[in-house]
Design goal:
about 725 residues; alpha/beta; OB fold (Dihydrolipoamide Acetyltransferase, E2P); 7-stranded parallel sheet; 6-stranded parallel sheet; 25 helices
Amino acid sequence: MEPTVVIAEASERVARTCSLADDASRLRYVSGARREALERIGLVRVRDVLLHVPHRYLDFTNVVKVAHADVGSEVTVVVTVDRVRLKRPRPRMQIVEVDAWDDTGVLQATFFRQPWLADQLHHGDVVALSGKVTFAYGFKQMKSPFHEVLQAAGETGSYSRVLPVHSVGEGVTASWMRRIVAAALEDVGDVCDFLPPALVSGHGLMSLARALRSVHYPASLAEAEEARRRLAYDELLCLQLALLTRQSIELGGVRPARHVVDGPHRKALVDALPFALTDEQQVCVQQILADMAAPQVMNRLLLGDVGTGKTAVAAVALAAVADSATQAAVMAPTSVLARQYAEKIGPVLDAAGITWALVTGSTPASEREDIAARIASGEVSVTFGTTALLSDDIAFAALTLVVIDEQHRFGVNQRTALRGKGAGADLLTMSATPIPRTLALSVYGDVSCSRITHRPNPGAGISTTSIAPENLDLAYGAIRDAVAAGHQAYVVCPLVDDTDDGSELDDVPESARSTTAQLHSATSVAAELARFVFPQLRVGLLTGPMPVAQKDEVMAKFRAGQIDVLVSTTVIEVGVDVPNATVMLVHDADRFGLATLHQLRGRVGRGSVAGTVYLACAAKRGTPARQRLDALEATSDGFELAELDLRLRHEGEVLGYRQHGGVSLSICDLGSDTDLVEWAHHDARELAGSDPTLASASLQPLALEVRDRFGAYFEEVERA
């Protein structure tokens, strides 16, 4: 008799794995209003629920008694509520005071602007409180602690375990989220692992099924971290493979351009530069030219802090295009920057015998028509411009190099559209926003990176000082002194005018978005300065919504010294180069992230006179906002600030790509998961190198996971 083959268990496991793609409503406790509440926080499918990793844990294996909770320490206590009081000491101020106790002492918890807690907490409830212990009026206290009701009055239970705390929204409490997740793990948690066994064992990772259970209900905090790392690696690897897949689809079937990189135009351009390239710039030039000469399409990111000379490096690449008798397009995010590129690089191109043109939204129709004709005929070798280059009337005869500055300010579709005007065109993107290595490897995993870390001309330096709004006279005095000495100044505001609600601000930290404080607008500040503060000075205004021609006119006057004080929004953040500007005042500095503030202050101190920057902020010392400003006062190293910015905020906010359809990471912590980023980057390239489409049977589960998580990242390219 032949042996019987039993496959029921395997079939059930496969079925559970397939159910990860089902709507979350198939789970127990998820229906009606609760389903809608989960959807509002992005939990639409079963997999979303299982991958909704707790943002913190309450470790009840290490609870501190009230008597042993040291003043000044961060602790968790489990106490019984005695009395709950709602106080209104003044209009719009509501305070809930909770008196609680354990068998060793009494503790008072105070909650501000959370009046609903007076109805949610009751005498006899057992609650966990986590926070910093203070002492006042004879009692140990906690102000606005994290709290969790462990058992309602009259219930019994044991809490010698680690309790997960998930991010929730209106309509779903933390306890309900735990119940939903527990049910999901019980019903469908025993899933198949999509990772190749060699990767799991090679990196010493947990199995997927165990990681899902352990991240939500760990036996210890160490186990929770081990589980999170497995899930973070999955996220990073899938993103890396999605990026490589996108690149493969985008470049599939195109014939790459092989540029001449040692021709006469290149030599003439290097000779025409008013300075010698530094060693770092030389290395970057060689990396770029090697890519341009290779039989593969170049996809390279040039990173360099403010003033490191990325423009000169890019100019050499433009010369190689001229030697190849083809064309290049340079796209900048603003007309101000596009015009500045033309003014800085144009004369060097002229000296090297390379033709060029500038196209922006303000280019007169007749002039634009003539330029378009010259571009279409191939007469123009290099074209500078804004998104005007994407217009249908701009058609290139042989576009083989696309250079995009401040690339994160453009959407993926815009970059793809310009590159699509030249099949097989090499791509060089540039950014003056310093990006940590881990972030570059993860989010730009399909891109080769070149870095310039030192300024060829360090300038006279910059000093940065934080001031309270009531001390603005310090900044005003510095501006008057600078103008008296023949120099100029910037005053930067977060808003355009008083009707601006600030919702479109780039790089605003999450913690600052909910502030109700009245922010400064450039329009109002310019009027006030001109009338009351600097009536003897020439005050100008520059904002993003202004017509392009008007912006160009304002910047031309400022460069010519016809404006003493330029009031602006962050439109001056990138690339604006006026060496005579030596002082800057930034209003509401807490409304900007480190990257933006670092870019802004790079506008001064670019000449022979040291720059002075005043950051006006009402935030108190010790707050996250002041921590950012303190960091700016302490260092001018952009990459050091970028690492700090990454620790303080989400990677999507650091890059500014949340507004532009970029991919965001939810489990990985790029500030601490450096090894995981390196592993994922290496593993993805090896897998894609041996099997670019992940078509082999052993990699099909991984291919499905990549498409399920990040398919939207390359589906638009497939449709195109």
